[in-house]
Design goal:
Distance between the termini of chain C: 31 Å
Largest interface: A-C, 69 and 81 residues
Shape of chain B: globular
Helix content of chain C: 55-70%
CATH class of chain B: Alpha Beta
CATH superfamily of chain C: TorD-like
Structural class of chain B: alpha+beta
Number of domains of chain C: 1
Helix content of chain B: 25-40%
Oligomer: heterotrimer
Chains: A alpha/beta, B alpha+beta, C mainly alpha
CATH architecture of chain C: Orthogonal Bundle
CATH class of chain C: Mainly Alpha
CATH topology of chain C: TorD-like
Number of helices of chain B: 10
Largest sheet of chain B: 3 strands, mixed
Number of strands of chain C: 1
Number of domains of chain B: 1
Structural class of chain C: mainly alpha
Order of helices and strands of chain C: HHHHHHEHHH
Distance between the termini of chain B: 42 Å
CATH topology of chain B: Alpha-Beta Plaits
Number of strands of chain B: 11
Strand content of chain B: 15-25%
Largest sheet of chain C: none
Radius of gyration of chain B: 19 Å
Number of helices of chain C: 9
Chain lengths: 738, 266, 201
Amino acid sequence: MAIHLSRRNFLKTASIAAASVPLSKVVAKAETGVAKAPLVPPGSFKDTDTVVGGVCEMCFWRCQLVGKVRDGRLVKIEGNPKSIDNGASICARGNAGVKLLYDPDRLKYPMKNVGKRGAPKWQRITWDEALDTCATKLKNVIDEHGPESLAIFPHGASASYPFHFFEHTVGTPNVSEASFFQCRGIRDMAYMATIEQPPGENVDMPNTKVIFLLGGHFGENVHVSHLKRYLKGLENGAKLVVVDPRFSASAAKADIWVPIRPGTDTAMLLAIMNYLIQNDKYAADFVDEYGEGFEEFAEGIKEWTLEKAAAECDIPVAQIKEVADLLAANMPNVAIHPGRHVSWYGNDFQRQRALACLTGVLGAFGVKGAFVPPKGPKGLKKVSWPHGDHDPDLLSDYADNSHDFSPPGTPTDLIRDAAITGKPYPIKGCVIWGQNPIQTIPNQEKTIKMLEQMDFVMCTDVMPTDITMYADILLPECSYLERYDYIKTGTQWNFADEHQQYIAPRMPLVDPEFERKDGIWITNELAKRMGYGEFIPTKDQVEMVNTRLAGVGLSIDKIRAEDGIHIQPGKDPYGISEDMTVIFYNEDLEDAGYPPIPTYIPVERAPQGYMRLLYGRSPVHTFNRTQNNAWLMAAMDSTPVWLNDKVASKLGFKEGDTVSLENQDGVKSRTTATVKVTPGIREDAVYIYHGFGSINPELTIGHNKGIDDTSLITKLAVDPETGCHGMRNNFVKLVKVS
Amino acid sequence: MQYGMIIDIDKCVGCHACTIACKAEWEVPAEFGRNWVYRLGPANTSAGMSYTYYPGLCNHCDEPPCVDVCPADTVNMTMKDAKTGKTVTMEVAATWKDPFNGTVQIDKERCIGCGACRDACPYGARYINEDLADDESDGKADKCTYCMPRVAEGLAPSCVQTCLAGARIFGDLDDPESEVSQYVKKGAVALTSPAVQIGSNGRYYSSKKADMELLMQSAPQEMPEASLRRIMLAKMSQPALKQIKELGLIGLAGGLFVKSLKQDKE
Amino acid sequence: MHSTESQAPKLETELSTEASLLSEIYGFLALAMRYPDSSFLDGQFLDAYEALLQSLEWKEEYADMQKWRSQTGDFLNDLQIEYTQLFINASPGTTIPPYASVYMDGDRSIQGKTTEKIKDFYRSCGYEVTSSTEPPDHIQHELEFLAALAGENRREEETLFLHSLFRPWFIRFLKHSIQEARHPFYRVSIQLIDFFTKEEQ
């Protein structure tokens, strides 16, 4: 650039026709002086308003929050001191919510993709254009192929309302929720088939004598009130048993660490139960009263001697016996934790059934320290979309395996397969709401194939993610800090304390910026444009929450006046209901062609030269959702590869070596990480954090950080009863990168 | 009184909330921290395998090497005891140890951002906050204040408030009845080594031998070189120092610091 | 033939004419930094833009603009895509968010402490950003604010704002945008902003 003039000279001499500009956005007010700003931030408590009613969604435990707001800017998030759940405490992610709220990479305006799916080029458009396009395109798909041709991938509190619109009113059954099909759906269905209720994480850890964890890595997996229960239990002297191939954060606090061979947990559980039954160390009275099919069950697991399990699980006989005796000595006051993310090996329904049965064998229901569901508040009204008269055509009716114990929705791979093959019918429209199927669903290539053949893909999210790159229209949603939606309910965290219940509806801590909208508004506008306006169940987010609260005589205003949380007297959760049943032998399972008693199904072991890829939680991240958070990424921005020290010296790897991972199908990780050499993992497995290695370059911080575990899970395992994925059946080798 | 902090390692689950709450409270740039959590292990120790944490922060030491090295001009500062209202006037540079509550503090307005105090701390508890650069400096020294502005308002330090495990205990070590003192009696120790004995008021407790053994390996093994030199300088009497200053020698030293700061950046 | 009596008022008039012209330019550049829509970004706007380049004798930049205008089928569409790429969400590549706090607050944040300072500065001068979907430290609003100050001939505050709250982040923004801004309109606009906000030697 050749600058011939200085600004000054230019201004002196110029006579140009620059348009005279109306400064419409700048409004003059009274004149004052200019003050110097102080150097040191004043702290979150100075000159701030405390805004109540926050309910966290950095993860899905949903701690109650307050915001410290200075002049419209959220300076800090704290736990709501009125909370009887998390109290004033929140975790690292909860504290870092501010950085999600104000992330410059966040979606700000509706955009259309003028490039290609997967290689997008974005153009900001108006909401009208965005909604009109979505409505027309989705309607075209429905008109041409029927409502079943829409696939819905929702996740999170704000996704319920839109997906119920598509599922109930529009009429597609093809909904795949990550929280079910890639997470805890198996657990819920297995417990339903055993004790007729989903278990949550409802074990009375503070008042127990033994905490038994299968893979639970509390501390790395952080849910505040859950951890408070766990820590209270340990403080009160509970023994801790941790079964995990890895010396996890929980194993480090355990009295007994069982470094089990991955995939063999059911064998161990069966052996424990068999040993207890054979040696008359089980809760015979409880089983008599509440058990169903116990004899057949006891008979059926007889083969599982401690020795047989020890060989299968690669652990000492004495250790299984030690665990079994510890449980027997303390029953029924033992907490057999049902787990949470349990989509591991494709044999998981059976393992979860075995856990539920073990709880029954120990009589560990309804008494102190056992499985005890909280008695939370009841009576909130439901607000949802009405069911249409369309009788949906189910993909499972066509499948070889109909996955009769599937969680609600349609198993992910039935949807993907139908989309890719066009059989039994085409899937041509896709609505993705808060889920990131690239990072949640194994075999990314298949997911991409599914997306590429769609006529239309619509995404709604808070952040750009790997999946948003595949959107035709991308809609920016309010975060959990800027909207009303979820109503969190529960009880005081420790049942030993005074029984109380709480109701905490999510309220915004700040107003939304840019053109971000809440999910109720977006869904209603879409529904109107698609011709479903008459079925809209609520006019907006405020009305929805107020209607729900009216069921218990409350309102947003009332609860706001009560500092964001309504607290009322609670009920004693202990005791067993009369219709309690533990179904040891399940005839429905038998009728559907599945094993009626918990059965161990072996999984493939690591081939020569490979190790099983295990993944888990980083304490400061929630899957891939927090991967662009400046504070959390500063705390942990990679996936150290846990490698057994003996294996490391045999293979010639040193601490800090940079490696990529290559799986059994020859798929290489796109990125690299460093080796962490430790005695704290078995020789047949490696471990990394889940959720890293984002592809999307729009994530300035998260892009290409660490290794994406999901990219290496190419070999699919599907749990036969539920149709949920098992994601720990892939094997990797380390490749040194110079 | 001497404020101090105990970290109960038995309770700590390594969730890192303390580090993020602090960042939010004091708007600390992402890449720095007034406190930290290092994950240690899993590693073998003489007492078995350990996987534990080193949650660290400024130890507000009895003999803080960071205070003596500050080359900023001194001023007379009147400090007040929050409890009794008693005052005392001291000649201090831009950082000092409070005679009433034992905390080590920084005056950002007078800090010249030379980095001498940062280099002097064997625990690495200080950093230069480049966000606070002004006409006179490339940034200002920053570190944990034990949240004194919060404590003055009757609030707990930010890291203590957010800790879900109740693993951080803050209080007066001079009060034998305080919880922190009870922990000291129970065996809470500072991360010290033969070479680093400067009266740390941050202490760690664990009932597990393996965890303590691994944690103690994080103790600094030597005093930073610069601070040894500085401590010698500090041993010179104040009047002597003043004379030297008038001769401009310290000015030269200041120039050297600026240079070393620049080298660090490269 | 100039008497001392007439010289002083003449200088004042000159300076105030200068200020009002500067105000118009700031305002014009503010518009260039706003998401383009048909309400303002039309042929007339681009003509004025080219006229500005011509009168500055920025020949290369003028030629680049002309070349683009002659080639494009839909200049508004072009600019919308380019604006979205550069300032909203870019893929592939990186955005250069046009917010002061992103560059000043150490951890890349919208609504940082710098935003607070800027909002306070606006207020202390009697201004407030209203009815905008963008934060107050968006480059568009900062330029509008400068336009307002220049319009009132408040040179001292203008200089103070430029020196303390505009140039420090703009320099970093400029560095990034030189790498990322390929489209002549935005590349030249950012250079124009640099030119008109740079302190005189």
